[in-house]
């Protein structure tokens, strides 16, 4: 699904507003305009814009005053100041009081796009860390289920919360493995100590080693400073290693040693440091297959799997979809400050029956996108140029095929469309549709999709 990002342009000169609008709309952003600081603040009260592009010098409220007000009322909004050469000093000043960056009007517009992309990245990261920044008393996640298997799993969590046993979480991408790990930490006696989560597949062997174990200054080229590793940071708390099936043999050996001795050595040092953490690992790989094919150590497998919890995919817990939808709607209502009165019947019916290859992550993205595009208080799929929406339009007209064949056809078409919408960029597509990069890679090979990607 294509991501939608909204930007509010605040500039008293129509010509400037129009130039930025054209530039940014051509890159897929949704644009709002305000002629003055006051108008911008009014708009912000009823509509959420994660990024504001604000002229420094304007009649009425100045850019700096607008910035101050936005930063005090909407902590998560990033403001980029726009200025001529005459206002550079003020723009630099603005950065000291919270502006994300600034752009000089006569410079190459590419510079502005780079600044916006940087702000977008930061916002996505913050969002990942704290899904709903504006929520106050609400629970952050839904920890209830009507599905027998999931219910049992949630009960088990409560039972094992107090122990320090190693836990292995299994399940497809997007089913909520990290959320379950966080829950396990939150209900444990370690809850006021750190919860450290690392996705092992994002690192090369060397980087992962330094990330986990830390390093001394000068221990390898580029190690300019001493760095504390994640095992040390997690001391007293919980460490969550996602995609554990991706770690190299080399790290597996070192990791096994840590689990046996509960001591680590930073890279470039032979001093042993004691560490005490609860270990939770997750994977969507079949580790038994990985052991058979020699990719994963059997002794490590038995160390990490004291308790195994398998989280079912969303399509196998359809009885929970309605509660999930309502949960996300309630949270996004607060985040986007939009008055949503209802969800269109046809859309709801579709959402309740859809198969969610990207699981809860995909459902969450669909609801978020409907919120962004919603103008009349009624959530609907209409206007979403995603393959999900196309599927929505056509889902009533299909021939009855063998299930696996139908699923393969669907997956293939879905992926071709998703890739096309994201300029065949694998990393971006994976992020948008809620698969890991590796999973998407495997699917591309499985369905020979390269021929559609040129
Ligand atoms: N119980 C829940 N309540 C609310 N949101 C949830 C819940 N479970 C998962 N989510 C949301 O779904 C998304 C995916 O969750 P999470 O990252 O935990 O999945 P995962 O199984 O670890 O995925 P991956 O294997 O790709 O890392 C996140 O945005 C998360 O906030």
TrEMBL record:
Modification type 4-aspartylphosphate: residues: 55
Entry annotated with the keyword Transcription: yes
Protein name, UniProt field: Sigma-54 dependent transcriptional regulator
Domain Response regulatory: residue ranges: 6-120
Domain of life of the organism encoding this protein: Bacteria
CDD domains xrefs: AAA, REC
Residue ranges annotated for the Sigma-54 factor interaction domain, each copy included: 143-372
The organism's taxonomic lineage, starting at the top: Bacteria, Bacillati, Bacillota, Tissierellia, Tissierellales
Keyword Membrane tagged: no
Entry-linked InterPro entries: AAA+_ATPase, AAA_lid_NorR, CheY-like_superfamily, Homeodomain-like_sf, HTH_Fis, P-loop_NTPase, Sig_transdc_resp-reg_receiver, Sigma_54_int
Alphabetical list of SUPFAM superfamilies matching this protein: CheY-like (SSF52172), Homeodomain-like (SSF46689), P-loop containing nucleoside triphosphate hydrolases (SSF52540)
């Amino acid at each position: 699904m294509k991501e939608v990002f909204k930007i509010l342009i605040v500039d008293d000169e129509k010509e400037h507003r129009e130039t930025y609008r054209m530039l940014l709309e051509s890159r897929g952003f949704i644009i709002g305009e305000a002629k003055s600081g006051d108008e911008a603040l009014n708009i912000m009260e009823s509509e959420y814009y994660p990024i504001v592009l604000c002229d420094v010098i304007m009649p009425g409220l100045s850019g700096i005053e607008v910035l101050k007000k936005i930063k005090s009322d909407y902590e998560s909004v990033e403001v980029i100041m726009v200025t001529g050469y005459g206002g550079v000093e003020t723009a630099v000043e603005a950065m000291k009081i919270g502006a994300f960056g600034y752009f000089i009007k006569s410079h190459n517009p590419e510079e502005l796009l780079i600044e916006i992309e940087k702000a977008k990245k930061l916002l996505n990261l913050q969002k990942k860390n704290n899904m709903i920044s504006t929520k106050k008393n609400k629970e952050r996640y839904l920890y209830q289920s009507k599905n027998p298997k999931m219910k049992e799993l949630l009960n088990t969590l409560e039972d094992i919360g107090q122990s320090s046993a190693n836990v292995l979480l299994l399940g497809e991408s997007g089913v909520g493995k990290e959320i379950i790990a966080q829950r396990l930490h939150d209900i444990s006696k370690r809850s006021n100590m750190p919860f450290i989560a690392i996705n092992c597949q994002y690192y090369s062997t060397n980087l992962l080693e330094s990330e986990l174990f830390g390093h001394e200054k000068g221990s390898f080229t580029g190690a300019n400073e001493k760095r504390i590793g994640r095992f040390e940071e997690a001391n007293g708390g919980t460490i969550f290693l996602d995609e554990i099936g991706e770690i190299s043999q080399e790290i597996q050996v070192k990791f096994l040693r840590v689990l046996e001795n509960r001591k680590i050595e930073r890279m470039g040092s032979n001093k042993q440091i004691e560490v005490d953490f609860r270990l939770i690992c997750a994977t969507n790989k079949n580790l038994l297959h990985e052991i058979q094919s020699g990719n994963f150590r059997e002794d490590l497998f038995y160390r990490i799997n004291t308790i195994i919890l398998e989280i079912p995919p969303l399509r196998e817990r359809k009885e929970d979809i309605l509660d999930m939808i309502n949960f996300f709607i309630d949270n996004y209502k607060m985040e986007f400050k939009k008055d949503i009165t209802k969800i269109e019947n046809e859309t709801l019916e579709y959402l309740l029956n859809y198969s969610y290859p990207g699981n809860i992550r995909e459902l969450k993205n669909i609801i978020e996108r409907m919120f962004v595009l919603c103008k009349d208080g009624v959530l609907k799929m209409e206007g979403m140029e995603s393959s999900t929406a196309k599927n929505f339009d056509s889902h009533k007209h299909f021939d009855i095929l063998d299930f696996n064949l139908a699923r393969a056809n669907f997956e293939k078409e879905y992926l071709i469309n998703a890739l096309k919408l994201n300029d065949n960029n694998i990393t971006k597509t994976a992020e948008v549709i809620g698969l890991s990069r590796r999973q998407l890679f495997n699917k591309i090979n499985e369905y020979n999709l390269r021929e559609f990607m040129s």
